Amino acid sequence: MGQNFIEFERYRPRAIAGQSKRRDDADTNDRRMKARNNILSICQAGFLTIFGILAACALPSTAQAAATPRRPNIVIILGDDLGYADMGSFGGEIKTPNLDSLAEDGVRFTNFYTHATCSPTRSILLSGVDTHVNGLGNMDEWTAPNQRDVPGYEGHLNKQVATLPELLKDAGYHTYMVGKWHLGKAPDLIPAARGFERDFSLLDGSGSYWDMTNLSAASPSSTFTENGRYLTKLPDDYYATKTYTDKMIEFIDANHGDGKPFFAYVAHQAPHDPFHLPQEWRKRHVGEYDIGWDAVRQARLKRQIELGIMPPGTQLSERMWFVPDPVLLAPATRAILGKKMELYAGMVENLDFHIGRLIDHLKKIGEYENTIFIVFGDNGAEGSDLFKMIAGSKGSRDYLFSAIKWAETHPNAWGDPGSYVGYGPMWAQVSMTPFSQYKGLMAEGGIRNALIVSGPAVKRPKESINHGLMHVADIMPTLLDIAGASYPQEYKGKTLPPLIGKSWTPMLAGQVDSPRSVRDYLAWEIFGNRAVRQGEWKIRWEYKPFGKGEWELFNLTSDPAERQDLAAQQPDKLREMIKLWENYAQANNVILPNRSVYEVMEDTLPPRVPDDPGYPPLLNKKQFIPPQDMMATPKS
Predict the structure, then answer these.
(1) How far is CA 284 from the centre of its chain?
(2) 215-257 per-position pLDDT tens digit
(3) Has residue 526 got a pLDDT over 80?
């Protein structure tokens, strides 16, 4: 446009020296007409040029807007105490077609870590910050005397952190939650106060699937919220897994079509005990588990190796020394214990069914292809007898409460309201095949979980398997990246602690195989049990008799079942790893508890002995049968 104005000045009419005034007048008029026409032509050309420039400026924006994809929806599906080997896509015989379909559309990750118990894992997931900083340095139920009133040990998700739903909401996402919260009950700590726009939430750590019955006399009723209001009763047709799914579909539909993406946190209570489920889901595996836990573990490991989840040559961990050899049990005993696993399998299949309802609904409304799914369990499978731990001994207040409120003890009533069934350490080890131990402990069976990620952010081959080292803290930076949001240095007037995770975005795009280098490390502590993993190496310290009361060293590449302690053979590596622990503890204000739920285990469990198959031979010696041709009857 500037060039056209210059051209206009060049063609302005001027008087020519030596010409008469008449000629000048005529020439002037002629020149004026020509100049007028030139001006009109130039103005027209200028206008067209200006219009063209404006149009050119506008076209890229329009094209860019048309080419810019919608930001993806995000669905996190959390199974409570779901085991590493329970899903079919991770080697389980349990039928999980809907979860497996997400694995077929996405990627399975075999080296993913959570924390050893539920609320600590959830606190890291929603804050991206270590438990000893975010308020869950210990579970609220087990805070030790020397941890009380210490920042980082509040027993709830504290106000020093910003939450994932808060940051996604600020970035233009709808934020919905259903299921178990377990991160605080006060009005300023419930889901609605921590960034969720809509919620239907169980605030407690567990309870009935049928009603509001809780586990102890001191807290006889579970607490629920819906959209920031405390509920006085539950819907008439309430069943936890079904209702949570109904509510999430309702939340998504309420705003569907407004152009905004959504973040859905589906924190199912299932399959946490008590094993409550409808009648039609209780008899899908009748008699299947009477063969015993050893045989089921062996079959699961075989499938894991065939699938590529575990490498060839992987061994099973030792059967817990206080768990009996099922071959030595009477058939009726095996059947009763097998029935508990039947109920658990039904719980997982019912969970899968309702997850399928959500998947199908997203397909129906055209949102499935633009939705990222992240699926995992919150910790290892539950091997402890939580009910016995709470009910205590005869004559106590809680024993009386349990006898009244949880009185349906006959096996035929298992699954009904008022029944309480867990499946014990034997089946927990099955759920965590091939790993050692289970929930609450620092062996792989307590902290390692199956992970599935699918959706538009995943560019790796569908149905592939990845073995990169990953952690639940990675989810927050990953989802902020995907949402186009950032993690602020300050939030609501407070300086935020740094995120401890690493974004998976490059890994999901296929640019790298792991978000971590061999020098990066992970660390844990809960109840005084603690661990560090760096590369293929791991150290763990656990109370006796689950551990040795001293640091143990394992090479997880050659020994994922943690059968061989290498501390004596590799003292330099042990010292190197302990130094990492000390750095972690100092950086995160780790205060080891002066009381622990594990402090009396050595006195209450049988003495620990090695798991040597077939020992003692006395118990497995079969009837001797002499050669037939040497048989005779006694002489009279």
Answers:
(1) 27
(2) 999 999 999 999 999 999 999 999 999 999 999 999 999 999 9
(3) yes
Residues near 72 by Cβ (< 8 Å), separated by ≥ 6?
261, 370, 371, 372, 455, 456, 457, 482
CB 566 within 8 A of CB 554: yes
Q: How many CB atoms lie within 10 A of CB 129?
A: 27
Q: Dihedrals φ, ψ of 337, to 5°? A: -70, -35
Tell me how far apart the alpha carbons of residues 452 and 102 are, in angstroms, rounded to a whole number: 7
Alpha-carbon torsion, ordered 580, 582, 587, 588, to 10 deg: 100
**What is the Cα–Cα distance from 166 to 480, expressed in whole angstroms?**
11
DSSP conformational letter for 213: B
In contact, 505 and 482? CB cutoff 8 Å: yes
CB atoms within 10 A of CB 392: 15
**Active site residue ranges:** 118, 182
Whether residue 284 contacts residue 349, with contact meaning beta carbons closer than 8 Å, is answered with: yes
Structure tokens, 437: 């131990």
pLDDT score for 620: 82
524-527 LR contacts (CB < 8 Å, sep 24+) = 524/115, 524/116, 524/442, 524/447, 525/131, 525/132, 525/585, 525/590, 525/592, 526/115, 526/116, 526/117, 526/120, 526/131, 526/138, 526/139, 526/440, 527/138, 527/142, 527/440, 527/593, 527/596, 527/597, 527/598
Beta strands 537-541 and 529-534 are antiparallel
